[in-house]
Amino acid sequence: MSLSERIAALEEEVRNAAARTADEVERFRVAMLGRNGAVTALFDDFKQVAAEEKRALGQRLNQLKQSAQARWEELKQASETGAGGAVQEGDPTRPAAIDAAGSLHPITLVRQRIVDTFARIGFTVSQGPEVEDDHHNFSALNFPPDHPARDMQDTFFVEGAGQYALRTHTSSVQVRVMEGSKPPIRTISPGRVYRNEAISARAHCMFHQVEGLYVDKGVSFAELKGTLDHFVKSMFGPDVRIRMRPSYFPFTEPSAEVDMSCTICGGPGCTVCKHSGWVEIMGCGMVDPAVLANCGIDPEVYSGYAFGMGVERIAQLTYRVPDLRLYWENDVRFLEQFRADAFRS
Ligand code: DAH
């Protein structure tokens, strides 16, 4: 066997060496590194090697000696701590190596819970495009041509595409559903929306909404309130309450904003509810008759309610995430905290 082959054989032997007792560890040392040991013998033979091979072989030989020493230390330590068996190959009692598992994003988890809650009471799920035209995002929803929401401040227009923009809310999907189907309509529309906002802990230029729409004969505001009360109780528990405040949206009449009692402090006030005990979670109202008409539904025959909520806000109340930016950074140290919920769902 050449010197190179003998080095390779000893490298293998060192790698596979096992020793349980102090005696066995000492035997390994003597056999490899002792005065008459195998590694030591190679150093003697090395003197015979031709000058041009000396460099490469010398390096490998030094490495072999180092790994034999390292292995000896390892075995010694293992035998002293009683873990001598750990060096054996194929020990079936060894704990398995844990693979890093992925997880569902907290926004996905919360969106799924929202969708499930409404699906259980008969709502279908509908979707629309994120690049939307002026008609579906604004005009059909009764936004007058000079409404400030169309302003460059809020809307990301698609360059060179005339009237197209990134949708600013999921209310655009209401219009698509009403245009494309006949009442009774009972649907929710989850999705991503965009607004030209400076990014901070409390605002982001993209976020998620879930839109709800119910259109049929004789739909009332009382049903809207009952449905939303059911929704918050199934998301947050039976003790959570809602209240409605009069508000204005171009596409609903009357309109309201919905607050729920703060789940973080339970009432007395904290930074999340701005010390009021209430947190705003959505807008809602009765679909404006003009919007029904714009979408081909006779407002003399049908009425409907609609609502729209921010998923990040609901997620914040569920998980107490203090900074909206965390949802987009996808830092694994953030994401892995939701793994238990992801596997429960
Ligand atoms: N589109 C509104 C927003 O983005 C939310 C909203 C309010 C949706 C009232 C509705 C509604 O369907 O009835 O702020």
Folded structure, characterized:
The structure is a single chain. With 345 residues, this protein is of the alpha+beta class. It has two domains: 3-84, no CATH class; 106-344, BirA Bifunctional Protein, domain 2 (2-Layer Sandwich), CATH 3.30.930. Helix content is 40%, strand content 19%. The protein is built from 13 helices and nine strands. It has helices at residues 3-16, 22-33, 38-46, 51-80, 106-119, 134-137, 171-180, 221-236, 289-294, 311-319, 326-329, 332-335, 339-344; strands at residues 124-125, 131-133, 164-166, 185-194, 206-216, 242-249, 252-261, 278-287, 303-310. Strands 1-4-5-9-8-7-6 form a seven-stranded mixed beta sheet, sandwiched between helices. It has a two-stranded antiparallel ribbon with strand order 2-3. Strand 6 (242-249) and strand 7 (252-261) form a beta hairpin. Helix 1 packs antiparallel against helix 3 and helix 3 (38-46) packs antiparallel against helix 4 (51-80). It is elongated, with a radius of gyration of 34 Å. The mean pLDDT is 90. The structure holds 3,4-dihydroxyphenylalanine. 3,4-dihydroxyphenylalanine (DAH) binds at residues 169, 171, 211, 249, 252, 283-285, 306-308.
